[in-house]
Write a structure and sequence with these properties.
single chain; alpha/beta; Rossmann fold; 2 domains; three-stranded antiparallel β-sheet; 11 helices; 15% strand; globular; binds glutamic acid
């Protein structure tokens, strides 16, 4: 495994945007809460560009994402990691997992896997990789051939529990819910689950704050931490932001990108004001500086229920 950044006695968190060019209000909420937690608790903040997710990444969007985070009032400490700039830390981790027999090569297509899951056991997820497809020699050391194979991580534990500091104790049955999951892709890049763990280890991250759509990923990542012989970070998964119809904020709710509101004249003060109501710091919408936000910020005031982005809030931002 790559070496950690120099040990610091301070906790370390990270902002890990995928620079897809579309930071929407839900992402902004996660980043602002994450950053405010760090700045009010004396944590270090690292920045990481998660740009390995191939086709969705657009040219120039990393710079735009950095500009937008700064405009919101966020800053960070130390070097920024851009995942695509050096794949060697992921190669190294994979070599270790291969040597230990924790992963196995698998070149079945999605269609082939789905066909094999057509009669799932009760409670099994359709997207799970069925155990019946696992090669008989899985668990034995394999050679790491970087470019040509998918590699799947062997999921042996019947249940994995996450002690989340926001969402509470959550148990996942990964053999049924995901099965052996992809750790390395045949594109020659690590899958999200592996890159996140390798990067959090090398950036010395002790506290992961993100949306609770990634809770199940935290369970998978816990298994990777164990396999890499490292302790898991503390998890803080925040409730999602929903659209007015009660579904997760997404494209169908219209264009909720921060950039779009900004182009219509939204000030950073308005964005922070909206975040203040979402975090339980203010009963109603009013412009606010990041300084005031930090002064008042207290995670205990934030509801543990999903937040709804209302028509009224949209109108205020756009006015
Ligand atoms: N890059 C991911 C995203 O923007 C975050 C992944 C993580 O926090 O682990 O959704």
């Amino acid at each position: 495994m790559p070496k950690n950044q120099p040990a610091s006695s301070k906790p370390v968190t990270r902002l890990a945007p995928s620079p897809t060019g579309a930071l929407h209000l839900g992402n902004a909420r996660t980043f602002i809460v994450n950053w405010a937690m760090a700045r009010t608790r004396g944590w270090q903040v690292r920045l990481r560009m998660e740009d390995l997710d191939g086709p969705r990444i657009k040219a120039g969007s990393a710079e735009r994402t950095i500009e937008l985070l700064s405009w919101m009032g966020l800053d960070w400490d130390g070097d920024t990691i851009v995942q695509s700039s050096d794949l060697s830390p992921y190669h190294e981790a994979m070599k270790g997992l291969c040597a230990a027999g924790d992963v196995f090569p698998c070149n079945l297509s999605r269609g082939e896997i789905q066909a094999a899951s057509s009669a799932p056991q009760e409670g099994a997820s359709e997207k799970a990789y069925p155990r019946s497809l696992r090669p008989t020699n899985a668990g034995e050391p394999v050679e790491f051939v970087e470019e040509t194979h998918n590699y799947r991580f062997l999921v042996e534990e019947s249940s994995t529990t996450i002690e989340d500091l926001v969402a509470g104790s959550r148990t996942f049955r990964l053999p049924r819910e995901t099965g052996d999951f992809v750790a390395w892709t045949r594109r020659g890049t690590p899958a999200y689950q592996l890159s996140v763990v390798v990067d959090d280890i090398r950036q010395g991250v002790t506290d992961v704050v993100r949306g609770d759509d990634l809770l199940e990923s935290a369970a998978r990542q816990t298994l990777l931490y164990k396999a890499l012989d490292r302790p898991s970070p503390r998890w803080w998964h925040l409730p999602l932001v929903l659209g007015p119809d009660g579904h997760r904020l997404a494209k169908r709710h219209g264009d909720t990108r921060v950039d779009t509101y900004r182009a219509q004249g939204m000030t950073a003060g308005k964005l922070i004001g909206l975040m203040a109501t979402w975090c339980g710091l203010r009963p109603s919408l009013e412009e606010m500086t990041m300084e005031q936000f930090l002064d008042d910020f207290n995670l205990d005031l934030m509801s543990r229920e999903p937040i709804t982005f209302t028509e009224q809030e949209h109108a205020w931002l756009a006015s």
